[in-house]
TrEMBL record:
Gene3D superfamilies assigned: P-loop containing nucleotide triphosphate hydrolases
Keyword terms: ATP-binding, Nucleotide-binding, Transport
Listed InterPro entries: AAA+_ATPase (IPR003593), ABC_SmlMolc_Importer (IPR050093), ABC_transporter-like_ATP-bd (IPR003439), ABC_transporter-like_CS (IPR017871), P-loop_NTPase (IPR027417)
One Pfam assignment: ABC_tran
PANTHER family: SPERMIDINE/PUTRESCINE IMPORT ATP-BINDING PROTEIN POTA (PTHR42781), SPERMIDINE_PUTRESCINE IMPORT ATP-BINDING PROTEIN POTA (PTHR42781:SF4)
Protein name, as recorded: Putrescine transport system ATP-binding protein
One GO MF term attached to the UniProt entry: ATP binding
Source organism: Hymenobacter caeli
Domain ABC transporter: 3-233
Length: 243
């Protein structure tokens, strides 16, 4: 296992947010965690990223205790809904940022950034500023900046939640293609069941601080809490009535 989470608990005051959570991720897997707002999804990601400290439990990366490791040394990237780009830097320099602070040679940085921009269909926008881009383009720049440093683990907190439906669908497909190509291991939290099904290779449901992991996609769909089976039945009935 690349990532092992064991018996993780966290409360804020007398309010439990995570209750005895355990899960694991092998290299290249995408764990899609579905849950409503306030269920503890963001707190889980923040603990993994090192931005919150759990009250109990362990987090291991390839068997090494991660909890004492500072956030900047965890080899993880945390992506939010808001693509937090540097407004004064071009698209090229935003994507290059992580390589520059790691002192990667200039020629290698240029080559890797150009390849990443081409992969994300951003080559024509390399010299633009973030304010000149659409929401979907900004999110792609943010994605490229995260991927280029080859993180061990990508933490995604509803990253496409602010995008319109078509752009969101495009970003989901882009995420799938790029994460398969680069064998990226990800924990992707969302409140959208279709998004979870689209991006995930493994599935979980987080509700009131308790995580349920599903052995198969079928069991994930059939669990009434995910509402997926009911939604599929609804669309089937609509098609049958000829609308």
């Amino acid at each position: 296992m690349l990532l092992t989470v064991s018996h993780l608990s966290k409360a804020f005051g007398d309010q439990p947010v995570l209750r005895d959570i355990s899960c694991g991720l092998a290299a290249g897997q995408v764990l899609a965690v579905l849950g409503r707002s306030g269920g503890g999804k963001t707190t889980l990601l923040k603990i993994l990223a090192g931005l919150e400290t759990p009250d109990a439990g362990a987090v291991l990366l390839e068997g090494h205790d991660l909890l004492p490791v500072p956030p900047n040394e965890r080899q993880m990237v945390y992506l939010y809904q808001e693509p937090l780009l540097f407004p004064h830097l071009t698209v090229f320099e935003n994507v290059a940022f992580g390589l520059r602070i790691r002192r990667v040679a200039k020629a290698e940085t240029t080559q890797r950034v150009r390849e990443m921009l081409a992969e994300l269909d951003l080559g024509a926008h390399a010299q633009k500023g973030p304010h000149q881009l659409s929401g979907g383009q900004r999110q792609r720049v943010s994605f490229g900046r995260a991927l280029i440093i080859r993180p061990r683990l990508l933490l995604l907190d509803e990253p496409f939640g602010n995008l319109d439906a078509q752009t969101r669908a495009d970003m989901q497909q882009l995420f799938l293609r790029v994460s398969r190509q680069h064998q990226i291991t990800s924990l992707f939290v969302t409140h959208d069941s279709r998004e979870a099904l689209t991006v995930g290779t493994h599935f979980g449901y987080l509700d009131q601080g308790t995580l349920t992991s599903f052995p198969s996609v079928r069991e994930f769909i059939q669990d009434p809490r995910t509402s997926i089976a009911a939604e599929l039945a609804f669309w089937e009935s609509v098609q049958q009535t000829g609308h």
